[in-house]
Amino acid sequence: MTALSAAQVDHEADPDRREGIIGNRPDPTRLLEPSPLLDLTVLDRLHNQSVLSAMQFDKELLVELAKLAAYLQLRRFPAGHALEDKILAAAFFEPSTRTRLSFESAMLRVGGKTISVADAKTTGVAKGESLRDIGLMFNSYADVVVVRHTEQRAVQDLTDYLKIPLINGGNGSDEHPTQALADWYALLKWRPEIAFGTIPERFRLNIGIIGTPGNMRTVKSFLTLALLFHENISHITIFSEMADPLGDEIRELTNASPIGIDFSQNLEQSLEYLDVIYMNAIAFLGDGYRFFADAFTLDGESQLKPDTVILHPLARGPELDVGLDGTQHNLYFNQADGAVWIRQALLLSIFGRVRDVVPTTFLA
Fold it and tell me: What is the number of other CB atoms lying within 10 angstroms of the CB of residue 198?
């Protein structure tokens, strides 16, 4: 097989159609056509590394991970036994459905095994066990651990005691880096030209973000990765009722970015020019969850541009009406589905097993 034909995948194998995904189903093949070969020197940067923040990723690494995920989603590589000697511990001290299950699914699909903590009340934490002791035990039980915790410092503190890689599955109101990888995997399949070259100015994206990056971890991580594509993003508007939706850390990043960023409390008036809308209505404010779904909502009557796409990390509430599910605006189900493939790509890279599953004809 030649390098070029590596990207010429049968269109009859539509993974989303086969798996029942409704809404917008961008073809992963499109992400491979501009540059089908994988650069393992870039993916090798993740070997044996923990993933704590979206700030660890640059554009080059994100794009190579997305390309590897696209090949995995298209079933181009025999990856079913790549991690059969590895165990993933999914340690969730805060409720989760999609993140925990997609990591477990990703690990199982590449031949690995999983062990889980699905409820903090069933662990030693309920009896006052320290993160130090938990971390030391993870070293004996698994080869990689995915942690979700209500406290921002928890994942960083755990790394002090771990000899194995740790992946941040969401830490309080701080970050959710692998959710942002799934977000951008969906967007790069939808508009692969974002990743390659420079889009003419009149076609560059206008992105609307509903939420507060300062205390919504998915929003913060999504915005962090958005700034990597500054040459192809014209403007970002943040819709929030808060006077200071950014917070100090993300403000530093946005101030250094050439992307125009402004703030609004009127989503309806902005719909006519938004190409991408990223929604989230759940914030973790230290003592529990808060829902912000009243001010900014979308439904079948919203005056969206015909080609506008909507992302949402889910779970959703009344802010995103089910009437949009069957439309091409719905990229959120593809976003959730794609999380399994981008997390497979991440795990293979962390364990240094990409070379074991990728034929040489696919390598740069």
Answer: 9
Question: Does the pLDDT of residue 258 top 50, yes or no?
Answer: yes
HSE-up of residue 333 (Cα within 13 Å, Cβ side): 18
pLDDT of residue 303: 95
User: Which pair of structure tokens corresponds to residue 225?
Assistant: 């990765």
The one-letter amino acid at 299: D
Q: CATH topology for 177-336?
A: Rossmann fold (3.40.50)
pLDDT of residue 84: 98
Closest C-alpha among 125, 158, 124, 154 to residue 286 = 154
Tokens (6 digits) for 156: 């960083």
Residue 240 belongs to what H/E stretch? none
Tokens of 220: 């913060």
Architecture of the domain defined by 4-176+338-355:
3-Layer(aba) Sandwich (3.40)
Q: Judging by DSSP bridges, how do beta strands 282-284 and 205-210 pair with one another?
A: unpaired
CATH 3.40.50.1370 placement within the chain: 4-176+338-355, 177-336
Percent of the chain residues topping a pLDDT of 70: 88
Please report, in angstroms and rounded to a whole number, the separation of the first and last CA atoms in the chain: 14
